[in-house]
Structures are given as C-alpha cells and as structure tokens.
Amino acid sequence: MALSMHKNSPYKDMDSSKYVRYTPEQVEALERVYSECPKPSSLRRQQLIRECPILANIEPKQIKVWFQNRRCREKQRKEASRLQTVNRKLSAMNKLLMEENDRLQKQVSQLVYENGYMRHQLQSASGTTTDNSCESVVMNGQHQQQQNPTPQHPQRDANNPAGLLAIAEEALAEFLSKATGTAVDWVQMIGMKPGPDSIGIVAVSRNCSGVAARACGLVSLEPTKVAEILKDRPSWFRDCRCLDVLSVLPTGNGGTIELIYMQTYAPTTLAAARDFWTMRYTTSLEDGSLVVCERSLTSSTGGPAGPPTASFVRAEMLPSGFLIRPCEGGGSIIHIVDHVDLDVWSVPEVLRPLYESSKILAQKMTIAALRHIRQIAQETSGEIQYGGGRQPAVLRTFSQRLSRGFNDAVNGFVDDGWSLLGSDGVEDVTIMINSSPNKFVNSQYGTSMFSTFGGGVLCAKASMLLQDVPPALLVRFLREHRSEWADYGVDAYSAACLKASPYAVPCARPGGFPGSQVILPLAHTVEHEEFLEVVRLEGHAFSPEDVALAGDMYLLQLCSGVDENAVGACAQLVFAPIDESFADDAPLLPSGFRVIPLDPKTDGPAATRTLDLASTLEVRAGGARPAGEADLNSYNLRSVLTIAFQFTFENNLRDNVAAMARQYVRSVVGSVQRVAMAISPSRLSTHTGPKPLPGSPEALTLARWICRGYRVHTGSELFRVDSQAGDAILKQLWHHSDAILCCSVKTNASPVFTFANQAGLDMLETTLVALQDIMLDKILDEAGRKILCSEFSKIMQQGFAYLPAGLCVSSMGRPVSYEQAIAWKVLNDDDSNHCLAFMFINWSFV
C-alpha cells in the first residue's frame, strides 16, 4: 500500500537532493509568504503547497530549503549593508583625522618658526654690543603685528546691510580659522578617542582670551537638517533660557544674517545670569559646505550693540559656529566651535574657575550639541526603541521641561513673577514665591497646581561649596539612596498638588522614609550620560489619621553627569511628582540637586568608595596606606552644590509652607554634608584608625563585644585571631566570609540594623549608612519571621539560638538563601543588652 502511494505521488520524478529551478510565479508566491512569516512551520509549508497549485510539484523539503536560503540571503544583505555603513564611517573618520593631522602639522611648523625666531633674537641680543634695543623693539613689534594682526573695524551703520555683511564675512573667516586652522591652540580632551562609534574629536583651548571648545564628528543626517537642529539652540543647550531672532536680512550670496538676543541661566544661586547680543550668518561655501557662524555685536566689532537688561551680565560670543560638510554616501561631517568671554570678573573669586574652564564649556555646549545631533540621527533611523508607547520626542520634551523648570527655580527671574520672601535671620536658605499663575500657562507648570482659593509656587534654595567630593559619585548616591536625605512627609505634601483636592495634606510633617524606592527606567541618551526614569516611592500610613500620606507616590526623575571619567561634566538630579496617569502634558514642578566641579579634575584615586568601613580598614598601623593610595591628599576637587525645592501653597498657609521648606532644605543640606564627608576620597587623611559608627560605640569596641558575646553564649570562638594588633578583631570580623549583622533591641520598636560586615552589606546590597533604614522584619520572609518570633524568648533567656535554612530579601528586592543562621545577644562591658547579632552562613543570591 505504501509503495503504490509512492508511485502515484506527484514528487516521483523529483530528486530532493537536486537543485530546483523556481519559476517567477513560484518565487512571487514564496516571497509573499516570507514577508508575512520568514520562518514558517512544517504545517504552514504543507498548507502553502495545498493553497498554491503552482507549488504542487515541489516537495515540502525543498520549500523548507528555499526559506532557509532566503533567510540566509537576508542576513547577508543586512551584514553587507552594515559593513558598508561602517566603511563609510571609517572613510569619513579617516578623512577627518587626516585633516586634523594637517592642522597639527601646521601648528607644529608655526611653533618651530616662532621658536627659531626667538632663538635668533636672543643670539642677536647677546652677540652685539650696539644698543639696538629700540630697533629690536620696533622689529619685534612689527613681527608680532604680522603674526597677530589687530582687525580694524570702522564704525558701521546699524541699518546698513552692507556693513553687517562685512562684519559677517570677517566673523566667517575667523571662525573657519578656528574650526580648521591654527587660530586657537587646541588641546584634545582626555578620554575623547576618535572612532566610528565615538562622539568625535573634542579639544579645548589653551592660553586664549575667554574659553573655547571645538568638536568634530560624523552624523547620518544631511547638512540642511543638521543646520536646522543646531540653530534651534534651546532644544539642546539646557542653559539657554530664550533665543529671540529680532530680524532677518537676506544677503546677495544666498545667505542670511540674523540679529539675535539670547539669555542663559546661571548655573548656581551664587552668580548672575548671562545674555548675548549676537549676529548669526548662514551661508554656503564653494565646496558645498554649509556654515553657520555667530559673534557678538559690540562697539569694538563695529556693529550695533543691544541695550543692557536688568538681572543679566552681558557676555561676549567670539566668532563661533558650525561647519557642516556633506559625506559621500550620505551624512555629514560637523565641526563645532564655541568661543565665549563670560566676564569672569563679575563673579565671586571662588566661582571664577566655573567661568574660566574650557572643559565645562565643552560639556555644556559643544559636546551637548554633537550628542543631540547623534541622538536625533539614531532616532530617525530607528536604531533607538523606547518602551511604554512613548515617542522619543515626547520623552526628550520631558527632559527639557524638568531641566528648564529646575533652572527657573534656581534663577528666580523677576519677569517670571518671582519675588523674594523675608528671611528668618539666617541667610543660608533663600525663599522665593511666585503668585502669578498666568506666568505658568503652557509652561512646565500647570494651572491645576494653583488653588482656587489663591496661592502659588514657593521655592527654597541654597548653594554650598564642597571639598574633595566627586560630583558624579555624590549624585549617584543621592539617586540610589533617597532615604538618606528625603522626607516621606514632604514628598507626600508635594504629591498632594496633583490630586483633585490639592491641599488634602495641610502641611508637611517630618515622617522619615518608611517605604522604599523602585526606579523604573524610561529612556536614556545614546551614551547613557543622561537618563529619564520613573521612581515609585512605596509608602505606608504612619498612623490611622495619616491615611493621606499612605500609598505609593511617583516621581519623574532626570539624572545626568554620573560618569566619573567625564572631565568638566556637571552632575544633576532633578525630579518632579507625577500621578499614575503620567500624561504627555502632565504638569511638572521640578526640584533637585546640581553639582558643578570648580577645578579641573586631577589624577587621583578612583572615586568608587562607599559608605562603609572598607576604607577605614585599609589604614595600616601608624597611618601607612596601601600602595597606590599614598597620594590620597593630592585629590583636591572643589565643587559647588545647588539645591532647589519647589512647593505649591495656599495664601493662608504661605508662612507655614515657607517655614517647612526652609527647615527641610536645611535638613537636606545637613544630610548631603554628612554623605559628602563619608564618600570623600580624602576623608581618611586625618585619621589613623577606624572611625566611630553613628549611634554605636567605636568599631573596635563593637567588634570586641560581638566576639565576646558569641564566645560566652555558644561556648566557641567566632573566629581565630591571627594577630595581636589592636584592630585585628575588627579586620577579621569585617572580612569574615559569612554575613554578620547587628540590630537594635528596643521596646515597642521594630529591630533596625546598626552594623554589618562586608559580607552582610553585600548580602543586603546596601551601605552602612543606608543600613540603618532597614528593619529586620523587612528582609525576612514570612517563614523566617515566624521562626524568629518563636525563638526570640529562647534567645533572650539562653543567649543564642540556631535558626534553620531559609530565605531573606535584599534591599533591592533580590531573594537570598542561607544554609543556617545563628542569633546571639551582644552585651556591653556592663553586661547589659546592647544589640542582637545574626550570622547567615553560606548565603547566596537565588
């Protein structure tokens, strides 16, 4: 029977091992299926043969081979396309590097010439007895004038387009000499290595007037699109408050001249904001390149100078701009130059490094522009996919609104409706109020935030100087350990403005931080230098009457500058309460922190220390340190921290909210100072032994009590002491392989952890300071809590108890298993109960 079926089969004349030639109709039918399902199942292939008569003479095995070959060809096509793209990038980058090499060779030749000229002058001066000083001075002056000719700018009529065009052409020539020539002595920034996937070649100025930065890079956008994006400066320059194009004048060569007034935010409350009155010239070069150059119009440049503006310091933009050249095969090569004089003498001396640093300018403007272009290019090509159904442009708008709202709070401009509120006699915290809701229509604030009974927005802000604190490390800690500085009651009050009854919480009350935070990633930039996220604050009611403070709250949070290797980068953490709906037009009232380095980053130890005893345990007897840390005192980094918190208020509660905000900012400042001292790499420079633990005896004493309690109650040693040194017990306890933790024993209070060795901190995924916010019953599962309750009386009477294997949970929510646990009482020198100690044996993450 099987034989007869085979003889009557339509496949009897076809050998499945031979090549099959498909007709165009068959290929078309297979392609239709492939477009719907590139990898059809066996049933789907058999169904295809039944539904398409033209495929009836082809075996299912041959259909399977066709789809395999088709997928292989598609994969090869994509790989070939990728390699072509990489090849184009490498070719363009090679061209860029060759041009940079030519520029450096010209710079070297110029330096060699100047060096030879100076040598000749010195030899002539030492080899002659004739007094040719006057002639020498004249000749030297002539040479200097030839090397650095002073441009002559005759006074031009402001209403004369020809005069403005002459200024524009001069600015264009000076800009091109900076972008591709040797007009500025450029020095490459550390860590900016060129490559097909790098941000580009970034350099900063050395020994020039003002501060300048330069960048070259590749993007996959056409020159006209690049110019359009870069000219929209508020979309990528976070410090730009406004940019007004006052007039546009066409030029005879097809270009345009724009007169522009721009205001920029002050980065801190300790300095005034800057504004610029500039002329922007857009034109094309003979080689097809597109140029957008800009410079300030002042009396010295021969152009019309704009009137001064109150609350702003007039800064000068020296010839700057963008040179955009088309690439073969698509895309563009971009040269960006930013050169400004920020009038450094108008700021306090301690802040002058902030206005004298070319690295900070490079991070804020030059690199930011290049990154923004690359971000848009990758979003356009579909290389970046964001979850949550949000479009990249919407998420980018959220980031801009958070940053802009925080800048508005820090600056508090009068024309936005801000006014100063009287102080309480201490000038450490500044309180400003804004009772003009009309100023916030269609802005980052919403009219829903203003009570129908009258009210407004209150901002409490302060700035402080920090010593030896890496900005990236501080902001990263503030982000990951919100419980170290935040108050849940204040967060609940801030979130109340989003509810139907905005003032259901009449005023914030200190309530600690009873819950935990969960960070939900939302979006990030290409190089992860900035990321947007939603933070869920899990809270609980303090008492039955505090139901309004219960429940989860949500924050939209923007974090940037946490890369410790980024030279001159500003670290920032900005957040605003949101409701669960989180609409695209959700009102935002941002608060947060900004840390800006004041000094160039020096070569110091890696800023990777955490708030634990690890660093204190590395101190050798007599103050000696391990190799590689002898120069710890040389890490001398200064930075300025700016804090701003915003709250809504009703008019009848304004003074209460102001008092609460002032006190809250002071407590936050105190918490930040404590954290900064703990994470400072140089905090050990004045100590030769372990530092005391907060709320407990000194570490040496506590370690001795823990070991003595274990020996007294269990009859065995916790570990064998290998050394007679004074800190030997502490060191061995700290490095013990099992997790050892201590928790408080207080009447009518949940046990809270007070100490943990390194293994204990690793198990709980926390630090010593954050450990004090973790309660014992929060890490044990239900079975573990029941066992502990049943054994608690035995522990207090007998002094110890063995607990069976079980599970616990780290502070990050990860389950941890352990084979056995031992609990014992820790007694002080008076034999009074000091705390309970737990040792989790052979623990591991599940």
From TrEMBL:
MF terms in GO: DNA binding; DNA-binding transcription factor activity; lipid binding
Family named by the database record: Belongs to the HD-ZIP homeobox family. Class III subfamily.
Keywords: Coiled coil, Differentiation, DNA-binding, Homeobox, Nucleus, Transcription, Transcription regulation
The keyword DNA-binding is assigned to this record: yes
Matching InterPro entries: HD, HD-Zip_III, MEKHLA, START_lipid-bd_dom
Keyword RNA-binding: no
Domain annotation START: ranges: 157-385
Annotated segments matching region Disordered: 139-159
Pfam hit, one: MEKHLA
Annotated ranges, domain Homeobox: 13-77
A Gene Ontology term for the protein's cellular component: nucleus
Subcellular location: Nucleus
BP GO annotations: cell differentiation; meristem initiation
Protein name (database record): Homeobox-leucine zipper protein ATHB-14-like
Main location: nucleus
